[in-house]
From TrEMBL:
<dbReference type="GO" id="GO:0016236">
    <property type="term" value="P:macroautophagy"/>
</dbReference>
<keyword id="KW-0732">Signal</keyword>
<protein>
    <recommendedName>
        <fullName>FAS1 domain-containing protein</fullName>
    </recommendedName>
</protein>
<dbReference type="InterPro" id="IPR050904">
    <property type="entry name" value="Adhesion/Biosynth-related"/>
</dbReference>
<dbReference type="InterPro" id="IPR036378">
    <property type="entry name" value="FAS1_dom_sf"/>
</dbReference>
<feature type="signal peptide">
    <location>
        <begin position="1"/>
        <end position="18"/>
    </location>
</feature>
<feature type="domain" description="FAS1">
    <location>
        <begin position="175"/>
        <end position="305"/>
    </location>
</feature>
<dbReference type="InterPro" id="IPR000782">
    <property type="entry name" value="FAS1_domain"/>
</dbReference>
<dbReference type="GO" id="GO:0000329">
    <property type="term" value="C:fungal-type vacuole membrane"/>
</dbReference>
<feature type="domain" description="FAS1">
    <location>
        <begin position="24"/>
        <end position="172"/>
    </location>
</feature>
<dbReference type="Pfam" id="PF02469">
    <property type="entry name" value="Fasciclin"/>
</dbReference>
Length: 378
């Protein structure tokens, strides 16, 4: 039914082109008075209570998918899942496109809290986040959410009394649980499998405001002999040492020398080299940051942490971490280890066509900043 309504709206749009400028009093007037929003308007008309609720919001920045974005979305498997989930899921998805506050001067890479606050979908205090930055090369604003998807706004925002609207070229995806996000986005499965085996996965995914330091698959393979000597309780403590609750460590909040208390009870120490754009937790190098998950953020690291070996890097300028465990022989290539290997080509994978904001290996953040993408080369 809704698919047909959207299709009809697309047909009618060519026969009733509305003005492309304001002034606009509310969001509905933007939808009705701006060419290119007929499909999202059909969504709103189909759910009048939802439309009226969103229309009352003030002091917001709205990422509003254009018609072409919606048409592509309805051919995507995400749409079928959305229709099956019903109005509550649509409400959540739309609220994930409403940023708290008016942000008309987006420059550097930073997180923005959205109006998605339902505990069914997020465990982030203040609302789940999207990341935004200004791509000077493309003369556009870009926004990033879950599932390695981004949406770009190539035009100036539309003003209305309740805030501003950025017409965007994609429908963002709400970040999912740790187990789904790290596998789908980064193909890093070892940490999740270890949590599952230890009976910790459901517990940690139910926490709020979490930072996960997730060792890549190769890191686990390199120390599997050492980890195999631990008792179940000791291994559980090691895994908890990779999880911080109560502090979400986004890139924009990185500070050198900060200590964070882990679920295991001991602290980890963050080392940031601002000149070389490298970052470490204890001696493990950040290789990917700002990967949003339902209850916080993931930082991929290149070594498994050890609560008994907390030394930082001898040289914070290097792009390789320090092993905290005795290592076994370098593993032979497997599907997981091959996927976990970081190359310059993979470095751009997280953000698609845009230079990487998050994942790097031999590619330095300085080079990416030179390319104008605000990168986390850690």
């Amino acid at each position: 039914m809704l698919r047909r309504a959207i299709a009809l709206s697309a047909t009618l749009a060519t026969a009733a082109l509305a003005q492309s400028h304001g002034p606009f009093t509310d969001l509905v007037s933007v939808l009705n008075g701006t060419h290119g929003f007929s499909s999202i308007n059909a969504f709103m008309e189909y759910y009048p209570k939802l439309r009226d609720s969103l229309n009352e919001l003030k002091n917001v920045t709205v990422l509003l998918p254009k018609d072409t974005a919606v048409w592509e979305f309805i051919e995507d498997p995400r749409y079928a899942a959305l229709e099956a989930a019903g109005e509550d899921a649509l409400d959540a998805l739309l609220r994930y496109h409403f940023i708290d506050g008016v942000h008309d001067n987006i420059t550097d890479w930073v997180q923005y809290h959205t109006l998605l606050t339902s505990p069914e979908y997020t465990g982030v205090t203040g609302g789940q986040v999207v990341f935004g930055y200004n791509n000077d090369h493309g003369f556009e604003k870009s926004f990033y959410g879950g599932a390695d998807l981004s949406a770009s706004a190539g035009s100036e925002p539309i003003l209305f009394d309740g805030g501003i609207v950025y017409p965007v070229d994609n429908v963002l995806t709400i970040p999912t649980k740790l187990e789904e996000e790290v596998e789908a986005v980064a193909n890093e499965t070892a940490f999740v499998q270890a949590l599952q085996s230890a009976g910790l996965l459901e517990e940690v995914q139910a926490l709020t405001d979490v930072t996960y330091f997730v060792p890549n698959n190769t890191a686990f393979q390199l120390v599997q002999d050492s980890l195999s000597e631990l008792s179940a309780e000791e291994l559980a403590d090691v895994l908890k040492y990779h999880i911080v609750q109560g502090t979400i460590l986004y890139y924009s909040t990185f500070k050198d020398g900060v200590t964070l208390k882990t679920l295991q009870g001991d602290d980890v120490t963050i080392t940031i080299n601002a000149e070389e754009y490298t970052g470490f937790v204890n001696g493990a190098l950040f290789t990917w940051s700002d990967m949003p998950v339902a209850n916080g953020v993931v930082i991929i690291i290149d070594n498994v942490l050890n609560p008994s070996v907390t030394d930082g890097p001898a040289d914070s300028a290097v792009e390789e971490g320090v092993a905290a465990w005795p290592t076994n022989a370098i593993p032979t290539t497997t599907d997981d280890s091959a996927a976990a290997a970081t190359t310059s080509e993979e470095a751009a994978a997280y953000t698609g066509a845009a230079p990487s904001m998050h994942k790097v290996g031999t590619v330095s953040i300085a080079a990416m900043i030179a390319m104008v993408a605000f990168a986390v080369a850690l």
